[in-house]
Amino acid sequence: MNKKLSLVVVILAALALSGSAAIALAPLGTPTADLKAGQFGVGLDYAYADTKVKIEDSSTHFKTNMITANLGYGVMDDLKGFVRLGTGNAKADNFSGDYGFAWGLGTKYTFLKQDKLDWGALFQINWLRSDDKIAGETVRVKPYDIVVAVGPNYQISNGLSIYGGPLLQWVRGKVDAAGGSSDIKEKSVFGGYVGAQAELAANTSLFGEVQFTGDSWGIGTGINWKF
């Protein structure tokens, strides 16, 4: 196996055996911008989330799958913007939703560059819709999450880096049914994440990461191409 992949594979394998999941609806990736001014990037992301939330006066775990294609653009050498489009589903107690429309957007900014250590900050927001039939009536879950994170991206060797840092995550949304709507709200806001990214070939990279708060933790992964 290519040594550049070993750290990413170890992270993904350990999480697959853990039975737990990422807290965010979509992966975060490095906190630093990875595109030069005028450069485009495309990718494919996957996240499986297990997030403890409050609905009215009760607590439950939302489990979501989200698969999206993303398109990024280098606004400047140190500033990247991106959008996501794809599909996802949600599950909770007595609710097993279908795959509905999912999308998101965000930005990354590198504010400090050093020899092998760059520092950056990111912001992203993601939306998801998932429906299920319960007692003959349609119940729709519409969660969204907002994530702000900051941290370093450290180059271990040529083509292999590790990244991470503290994060804040807000999970909100609605549960709509014939009887009315209920609000969704996260149980924990503060957390952190850590991951690794390996260059597979020129302008092609794979990443895997762990995310966690006081109530949830897990996995996100993706592959990206620059052109």
Structural class category: mainly beta
Rg measurement, Å: 18 Å
Oligomer classification? single chain
- Counted by DSSP, the helix tally is 1
The average pLDDT score comes to 88
Largest sheet report: 13 strands, antiparallel
Ends distance? 26 Å
Number of strands: 13
How much of the sequence lies in strands comes to over 45%
Helix percent reads under 10%
Shape: elongated
Domain module count: 1
The helix/strand series, from N terminus to C terminus, equals: HEEEEEEEEEEEEE
Note poorly predicted spans: 3-23
Overview of the molecule:
This protein is mostly beta strands and 227 residues long. The protein has one domain (3-109, 119-134, 185-226). 6% of the residues lie in helices and 70% in strands. Strands 1, 2, 3, 4, 5, 6, 7, 8, 9, 10, 11, 12 and 13 form a 13-stranded antiparallel beta sheet that branches. It is elongated and about 60 Å long. The model is unreliable at 3-23 (pLDDT under 50).
Short description:
With 227 residues, the chain is mainly β. It has 1 helix and 13 strands, in the order αβββββββββββββ.
Topology:
Elements: H1 6-18, E1 40-55, E2 58-76, E3 79-92, E4 95-96, E5 100-113, E6 117-128, E7 130-134, E8 137-157, E9 160-177, E10 180-186, E11 190-201, E12 204-213, E13 217-226
Antiparallel strand pairs: 1-2, 1-10, 1-13, 2-3, 3-4, 3-5, 5-6, 6-8, 7-8, 8-9, 9-10, 9-11, 11-12, 12-13
